[in-house]
Each structure stands twice: as structure tokens, then as C-alpha cells.
Write a structure and sequence with these properties.
The chain has twelve helices and eleven strands. It has 379 residues and is an alpha+beta fold. It starts with a strand and ends in a 9-residue tail after the last helix.
């Protein structure tokens, strides 16, 4: 899930929002604005909407706190986390690798529901304090709603089914018991698909029973769980297949590099680069990697400015690209490669590019390993 808008950084982690967040904020605000008049009639419509929008935005901040807790605990356990994206069905913390141990998985997954539970308690206490202070009824109602929805979020995310936090907890337990992260993933993703189909069935039942909107959303969440669990299971099988394969076996070695000071016009016109590849490492005068430039990004520069625009100004910075070593495990690179802006990784040795790995390179290796006559030894 790529963000439509980046809001900035929080604790060194980029925070972005997808355009679909606007949909959920409007739906929540509209639902609250329609609910408030039943308990507190004869108020101006703008007041209902103002409190509804404020409550919806505060809930999104609760989701952000949930996701930032995952990212921070992941960092403390050796897993790089650099971006959080809020979207229609919640939030996603982008982790660059898998948890190294079952204990780390348990800590990373478990902190999210705990933060949501803590938010539910805080909002509940705030609602009680507001009521005791005889604050406005709408404020009390909004705080009580925030307490309830955070409690619901904590409980739902604790269900033992991937990709929910509870699924991660289940995976950690099975991993600890069996010693096999693959078997643990199979169990967690199987539970995720089962829960997804259960939600789809319940959603259709509610929809045909007259609760069309609620049933529709329940079915959508179920379909999302099915798709996410299926994808996670496929990634686990892929990691198992690639076990023991180093990055150097998949990379394109000795890539053609581009000086960062080269202009976009020269890049597109120089025969050394034309038609050879669709992306090139960008280096400084000492040969150290600065980033990666794609032909598409370079071609997007207007012709009248291409002669004055350096390649370094249109490249993807090296900080946003996976940078494995040639002897690193290819399987460990998969999550970061999928999330990479260009779906490529720069293979570095002492800061200098020695290869490029793309998703098509991984597919090529996977196809070879999956063929009946392939030999895993002697690579």
C-alpha cells in the first residue's frame, strides 16, 4: 500500500496516508453526526458534524499510535521499519524483514493490541471525567465512542488469524513449539483464510437480512483477510524455496553505473545507457552508491529542462532502496524488494554497487528451482 500523501516523520518513521482514508473519515463522521441527534436533539447540524469529524480524526490518530508501536518495537528487535501508511481498512507498518525469533515476533505483534487497549482505557476515563465535570454531552458521547471503537480494534486484531496481530501471535507460538517458521505461517494463514470466509458469510447474511451497509463492510474486510492471508502464505512458500540461495545468484552483476552529475538529457541520449536497462545505479565521484535512477523517471523530466537537471535530482535515494550484500540470503530480501519504489535492490560491497536484483530476477531463480530437473546443490 503506497501513500498518496506523506505527512512527515514521527520517531524517524515516515507517515503517509492513502486517499481512501478520506472515505473512512467521512463515513465515520457521517455515522456519528447521524447518531448524535438521537441522544442530544435540538443542536445545530454543524455541531454534530464538527464533533463527528473530530472523533473520526482522533480515531485515525489511534490507528497511527497502534502502527507506530509495531514499528518502534520492531526496531528494538532488529527489524528495520521505515514507513507507516494509513488507509481505508486501518494502517500498515512496512517492515523490511521478518522477525528473527519467535520471541521478537511475539513482542512486535503483541504491542499493537495493547496500545489500542490502553487507548480504550484512556478515552473511557476521559469520558467519565468529562461526565463528572458536566462537560457537553456530545463530548462525552464522542469520548465513549472512541473508547469503544479502540476496544473493538484491540479485540478484533487479537483474533488468531493472519494478517491480524493475533495471527502473528499464533505464528510466534507455533514457531516456538515446532521450530519451523514455515509451518507456523501455514497455520496462521490458514486461520486467516478461515476467518475471512466466515466474515464474508456473516456479511452476506446481514446484507440479505436488511443490514446492507454493515454486511457490505464485513464482507469487504473478510475478502481483504482472505487475499492478505493467501499472499502471505505464498510468500512463506517462496522463502522456503529460496532458502540457502545467496543474492549473488540472482543479481545482474557489474551494472552500468551513472554519475550523479550527469544530466538527464545525456543519460537518455548516451549510447552506453540506451536500450540496455530500465534502471541504473547512481554513484558519486568515488564510485559509492547514491541511489537508483529509472528511465521512466528520467523521461518524465520536460525536454526543455533535461539539459540542466542532474540525474541525482530525479533518482530514488539509496536510503529508500534495499541494499543487500552479495552473500546475503535472497529469501530475506523478498519483503523489502516488494516494497521498494522501483521493485529493485542495489547489491553493495563496501558502499559500491556490484549488482542489481529485480523481482523478475527472483522469478527467474524461483522458476529454475521449481522445475522438476533442477538441482539445489552445485549452484
Amino acid at each position: 500500500m503506497r501513500p498518496t500523501l506523506t505527512l512527515g516523520r514521527l520517531a524517524g518513521i515516515r507517515v503517509g496516508v492513502h486517499w481512501s482514508v478520506l472515505v473512512i473519515v467521512v463515513l465515520l463522521a457521517a455515522g456519528l453526526a447521524g447518531r448524535f441527534p438521537e441522544a442530544y436533539p435540538d443542536r445545530p447540524a454543524w455541531e454534530y458534524w464538527a464533533v463527528g469529524v473530530a472523533a473520526a480524526l482522533t480515531f485515525m490518530l489511534s490507528l497511527l499510535a497502534h502502527e507506530i508501536s509495531h514499528a518502534l518495537v520492531a526496531r528494538r528487535n532488529g527489524v528495520q521499519a521505515d514507513e507507516i501508511t494509513l488507509w481505508l481498512l486501518g494502517g500498515v507498518a512496512r517492515l523490511r524483514s521478518e522477525a528473527p525469533t519467535p520471541g521478537a515476533e511475539l513482542r512486535i505483534a503483541g504491542v499493537g493490541p495493547l496500545v489500542s487497549l490502553a487507548a480504550a482505557v484512556v478515552f473511557g476515563l476521559a469520558a467519565g471525567a468529562a461526565m463528572a465535570a458536566d462537560a457537553g454531552g456530545l463530548v462525552v458521547e464522542a469520548l465513549a465512542w472512541l473508547s469503544g471503537i479502540n476496544l473493538l480494534l484491540a479485540v478484533f486484531n487479537s483474533l488468531p488469524a493472519a494478517p491480524l496481530d493475533g495471527g502473528r501471535l499464533l505464528r510466534a507460538v507455533v514457531w516456538r513449539v515446532t521450530g519451523s517458521p514455515l509451518r507456523a505461517t501455514v497455520v496462521a494463514t490458514g486461520a486467516g483464510r478461515a476467518l475471512g470466509w466466515l466474515l464474508v458469510g456473516a456479511g452476506l447474511f446481514l446484507a440479505f437480512g436488511g443490514a446492507v451497509v454493515g454486511g457490505f463492510w464485513l464482507a469487504i474486510i473478510g475478502l481483504f483477510l482472505i487475499a492478505a492471508a493467501t499472499a502471505e502464505g505464498g510468500q512463506a512458500r517462496l522463502r522456503e524455496l529460496l532458502g540457502g540461495v545467496p543474492v549473488r545468484q540472482a543479481m545482474t552483476p557489474e551494472p552500468t553505473v551513472v554519475p550523479g552529475t550527469l544530466t538527464v538529457r545525456d543519460l537518455l541520449a548516451d549510447p552506453r545507457y540506451r536500450y540496455r536497462h530500465s534502471a541504473f545505479p547512481v554513484v558519486d565521484p568515488g564510485g559509492r552508491a547514491l541511489g537508483l535512477v529509472t528511465v521512466r523517471d528520467a523521461a518524465a523530466v520536460p525536454a526543455e529542462g533535461a539539459g540542466d537537471t542532474a540525474v541525482s535530482s530525479v533518482m530514488i535515494p539509496v536510503e529508500r532502496i534495499p541494499t543487500p550484500g552479495p552473500d546475503d540470503a535472497l529469501a530475506g530480501l523478498l519483503p523489502a524488494l516488494q516494497e521498494s519504489p522501483a521493485h529493485r535492490a542495489l547489491v553493495l560491497r563496501e558502499g559500491r554497487p556490484v549488482g542489481i536484483v529485480s523481482t523478475s530476477d527472483v522469478s527467474r531463480v524461483t522458476s529454475w528451482l521449481a522445475s522438476p530437473g533442477s538441482r539445489r546443490d552445485g549452484r
